[in-house]
Specification:
Chain lengths: 352, 299, 376
């Protein structure tokens, strides 16, 4: 059996295991655990989409929260019924054409991604000429502008009141379905020729240009795809929380995604998934440090805020001791379990 | 808009802008040397304000002592942050240090919430700083604090420029910002110079924190978040890495914020958007900011 | 033999059921204990803790307050409520400061069928179409109309300006309701200025407002920002009156604003430690608070934290059960229950109907002036 068939079988088995897990989970786990598991998938999707922009193509973007916001709002505006909309726009009436706009969830998800990708593309055209940190600042600026527009354009977005009563469409099947689709897409992308082009643009733009690569077009394309992921992730998030408002999409949201990407390992698909698992569960698991503790007769009441103190210390420690993140640029591979076959070169970017 | 209103807005913008500038210098100095966006800078600013608050209001120490203690305390914190969270990452990819900086920022904010609670504390302004002077028959009001803030800021910038351009450690700083490895080979103790940079930046942040707390009289754990964020934008605006640039960026931002409302009162909800649009336009026209030097792209 | 076994098993089953019933009644508490709104959530927690200390038992079962932080963050708020319901198996929930957080948490509780008593989430949308969400506070349309009524009828003001935090749902909502009522009562809005949460320099907005010469400026801010606005306004020579909402009700306003807050008015719940003829519940609350926190005054957030817990306890008593659905039904029947903030009745939309108080700051102290009935 050659490696390719083996991996295909193993991938199939893993997928089957995931399906069994998703099928069994709702009956066996409580809703709290299910919510965290769900959140992991959404954070992984968002992390992967940012990783495509930053880790794989080397474009420092601090604007992901803005694209999430676009996705979340587009999706919510499409899903909410006219009745819900009328009852929610209590400050200014909603735009008439928007009132009766309605679409099923899956359509809204695609629309969310497309809208975010469109804005991403629009922004990319001017700002991707910038490099390094300046690109980060410019994208951050755009994300803030998007947020300020959402706050101010009340007839369109209901302003700072936000939207609520979004049906909780994001179940495990939805979020993990999107995650698996994203993973398949990303692995195929990165192992194909386009992945090589992206890496070339990231590692040495000048060399890539001399090879005849249209680096600008490549960057715009990667950025737009990343924004699509951001929009879908934002829409999934909105449909999980069921209420959204502009405050959710501040720069701190981008920071936590950046954390996921870097802690996992820049440019590593596996890394982003691991980062999402770690950051999401850690934040919830650490709640115990804020609970009151009784040791014998000694009663210590909980200290609110300790959780974030411990979390930030852990974050710094992880970065100091594993400076390239947990995975570094490496990827998970089934070959890890078959040491005998190590002689076979890992087909990174081969033509399989 | 009447002339009085314009002058009043001008005075206000000058005060706000010079404070932004002062905070921006801390970002610009660290960035110039390490190419690191020190996200924790705004929180050092917050700590400076808290130190001053505890010294003068809780423990009733004289103002001068309080200010000195705040500067000393923030400087120590700045040095500790560099030693613990940044120095081990000098040779790591820049993004690792950036995430570490975000971690430090979270850490300082939550630690402040745990230690000082989330309740904002009032800062008592000394009477003599707040006696308004009436100009043009009371059409314009100017307080000693309003003059003091820009004057002190400009003096500090002057002093800093002198340190950077006329002293040996300053020369070393500039040298590091060109090429850290060569500077090391020249026998300069790079880590010490970087520590000095953090110390200077933190001391300036403390001073900015104190003046900010006097002008907007309260301290709270998140007070550094927005000013820090805006000052950072100001630093990019003026050309990150350049000290006069940071001051000019800060002043520009202060003026944009105040004057956009003065001239377009109905658009006051879009205030921050004005600043960002201008930022993006400047970056597109002059990608390294107003005063920034073009960093050579290494091939 | 089999019958005996069955009897034993039934006996065991009943006994275990009885044992379970004797466990504590858990009241979940989610609020902003850290993050941007920590100042509000921490006070509400202190109030809730007093309530549980005062009534340690109901229906012969211990009451336990399970506290979870929501970091002033929406995703965390939803997680916190899920955690309370699934992991701690609470019977009812109290929280939170901040309407948008309540909306995120409310959906989770709605699906799980656990009743929630909101503390100070005053936006109308919080309880809209919710079967399980209640609140111990009144809502913003009522408050805004009350403020406008007082400004026009009692003070005789004609020209108002608004200074709104456009990024804050509470501020935007209240500002709008005040504006609508003020205009309907024959007043005129001469200037509408905005700022964003986190801003600390308001001089440009204030300079513009001063030039429009209003009689009164409505400032529905959170207190820390509001106090700074008042200070800057006086520094710029403003002489008009400022009026705020319940979020300005905090003893720190005086400390933060100093002389600048003299004459500042705000609408609030009908409770203040300075009240002359306090109702017995309020008196008791004030006394226990002073005993527990000798160095600070209680405010409405503390009172609402306390009231929210007490309303749930009251519902449990009336229901004679701690089952979530029974508590919910009893909560719906809440009528004229004496609380710190006055007699409380739940209306059809699950909002507390209670009196609106007016507080003025005089001589560096909060003075409760009286109550006002909105006329529009």
């Amino acid at each position: 059996m050659n490696t390719k068939t083996r991996n295909l079988i193993l991938n199939g088995l893993a997928l089957a295991a995931l399906v069994v897990f998703l099928y069994q989970a709702p009956g066996n786990l409580d809703r709290y655990k299910l919510r965290i598991i769900n959140l992991i998938a959404i954070n992984a999707i968002l992390g992967l989409s940012l990783n495509l922009i930053y880790g794989m193509t080397g474009m420092f973007s601090l604007g992901h929260a803005g694209f999430m916001a676009i996705g979340a709002y587009v999706s919510a505006l499409l899903i909410l019924t006219a009745e819900q909309k009328t009852s929610m726009w209590i400050l200014q009436p909603i735009l008439p054409w928007l009132l009766n706009l309605h679409a099923p969830f899956v359509v809204s998800l695609i629309a969310a991604g497309l809208a975010a990708a469109f804005f991403g593309w629009l922004i990319a055209l001017p700002v991707l000429r910038l490099g390094g940190d300046y690109l980060g600042i410019a994208t951050l600026g755009f994300a803030e502008i998007i947020r300020i527009l959402i706050v101010n354009l009340t007839p369109l977005t209901n302003g700072s009141l936000g939207l609520k009563g979004i049906p909780a469409h994001t179940d495990l099947w939805m979020s993990y379905g999107c995650l698996v689709a994203m993973l398949i897409f990303m692995t195929r992308l990165m192992s194909g020729n386009f992945g090589n082009v992206l890496r070339a643009v990231r590692d040495d733009e000048i060399a890539a240009r001399t090879m005849g690569i249209d680096t600008f077009r490549t960057r715009v394309l990667a950025f737009t795809i990343g924004c699509f992921g951001g929009g879908v992730g934002g829409a999934l998030m909105g449909n999980l929380i069921t209420a959204i408002d502009p405050k959710m999409f501040m720069i701190t949201q981008t920071y936590s995604l950046l954390m996921i990407v870097v802690v996992g390992g820049l440019g590593s698909i596996t890394g982003s998934v691991i980062g999402a698992i770690l950051v999401t569960t850690m934040l919830e698991w650490l709640r115990f440090v804020e609970e009151p503790i009784t040791i014998g007769s000694l009663h210590i009441s909980g200290i609110p805020g300790m959780r974030m103190v411990v979390f930030s210390m852990l974050l710094i420690a992880v970065i100091i001791f594993r400076r390239e993140g947990i995975m570094g640029p490496r990827e998970f591979s089934w070959s890890w379990f078959f040491p005998a076959r190590k002689a076979e070169p890992e087909m990174k970017g081969g033509n399989d | 808009m009447s002339l009085n209103m314009f002058i009043q807005n001008f005075i206000n913008a000058l005060g706000l802008g010079s404070l932004y500038g002062l905070i921006a210098i801390g970002y610009t100095m660290v960035y110039g040397i390490l190419r690191l966006i020190n996200f924790a800078h705004g929180d050092i600013f917050m700590l400076g304000a808290y130190f001053m608050f505890f010294a003068t209001i809780r423990y009733k120490l004289p103002w001068a002592v309080g200010v000195l203690l705040a500067i000393a305390g923030s400087t120590i914190c700045g040095l500790l942050v560099d030693r613990i969270a940044y120095r081990p990452l000098r040779s790591a990819p820049r993004i690792s240090a950036l995430i570490s900086a975000i971690g430090v920022s979270f850490f300082l904010e939550s630690l402040a919430t745990v230690l000082f609670t989330g309740m904002p504390r009032a800062v008592l302004q000394p009477e003599w700083l707040m006696q308004p002077m009436l100009i043009r028959d009371g059409g314009i009001r100017l307080m000693p604090l309003g003059i003091m803030v820009p004057v002190i800021s400009f003096i500090l910038v002057g002093a800093l420029l002198w340190v950077v351009h006329k002293t040996k450690p300053g020369l070393a700083m500039r040298s590091i910002s060109f090429d850290i490895e060569t500077t090391r080979l020249m026998g300069v103790s790079v880590d010490k110079i970087i520590a000095l940079t953090f110390a200077l930046g933190s001391a300036l942040a403390a001073l900015a924190g104190i003046m900010w707390a006097l002008r907007y009289p309260r301290v709270e754990p998140f007070m550094g978040m927005f000013p820090g964020f805006k000052a950072f934008i100001a630093a990019v605006f003026g050309g990150i890495g350049s000290i006069p640039g940071a001051m000019i960026g800060g002043l520009t931002l202060g003026f944009v914020e105040i004057m956009s409302i003065a001239f377009f009162p109905t658009l006051s909800g879009y205030r921050d958007a004005f600043a960002f649009v201008l930022l993006i336009v400047i970056l597109l026209v002059k990608p390294t900011g107003l005063m920034g030097e073009k960093l050579e792209e290494k091939i | 033999m089999r019958k005996l076994l069955l009897a034993v098993m039934i006996g065991l089953f009943v006994a275990s059921g009885a044992l379970a019933a004797d466990g504590p009644i858990k009241i979940g508490f989610y609020n902003c204990l850290t993050g941007q709104n920590a100042f509000g959530g921490q006070l509400e927690l202190e109030g809730a803790q007093l309530a549980v200390a005062e009534i340690p038992e109901v229906l012969g079962r211990k009451i336990e307050l399970v506290v979870v932080d929501n970091k002033s963050d929406k995703v965390e708020a939803a997680n916190a409520v899920t955690r309370l319901i699934e992991r701690d198996r609470v019977n009812a929930i109290v929280g939170t400061y901040g309407s948008s957080l309540a909306m995120a948490g409310g959906e989770v509780a709605e699906v799980a069928g656990i009743p929630v008593m909101g503390t100070s989430c005053t936006n109308p949308l919080v309880t809209l179409n919710k079967k399980y969400y209640f609140r111990a506070c009144f809502i913003d349309p009522f408050q805004g109309a009350g403020g406008a009524t007082y400004a026009v009828k009692n003070l005789g003001f004609k020209k108002a300006a608004l200074l709104t935090d456009i990024a804050n749902d509470y501020s935007v909502g209240l500002s709008n309701f005040f504006k609508a009522a003020f205009v309907r009562l024959g007043g005129e809005i001469v200037s509408e200025m905005n700022y964003q949460s986190g801003d600390q320099d308001f001089t440009a907005q204030l300079t513009e407002i001063i030039s429009k010469k209003p009689d009164i400026v409505f400032l529905p801010a959170y207190f820390a920002e509001g106090a700074v606005v008042l200070k800057q306004a006086r520094e710029l020579g403003a002489t008009f009156i400022f009026m705020g909402g319940d979020a300005m009700d905090n003893p720190e306003v005086v400390t933060l604003g100093g002389e600048a807050v003299e004459g500042f008015l705000h609408t609030t719940f009908a409770y203040d430690p300075s009240m002359k003829d306090m109702n017995p519940v309020a008196q008791k609350f004030t006394d226990t608070w002073k005993a527990a926190h000798p160095d600070k005054d209680p405010n409405v957030n503390a009172a609402l934290g306390y009231d929210a817990c007490m309303l749930i306890v009251d519902a449990i008593k009336r229901a004679g059960s701690a089952e979530p659905d029974k508590i919910r039904d009893a909560l719906e029947q809440t009528k004229d229950v004496p609380t710190v903030t006055g007699l409380t009745t739940m209306n059809a939309t699950h909002d507390a109907e209670k009196e609106l108080g007016i507080v003025e700051i005089r001589g560096g102290k909060k003075q409760f002036i009286g109550t006002v009935k909105p006329e529009v």
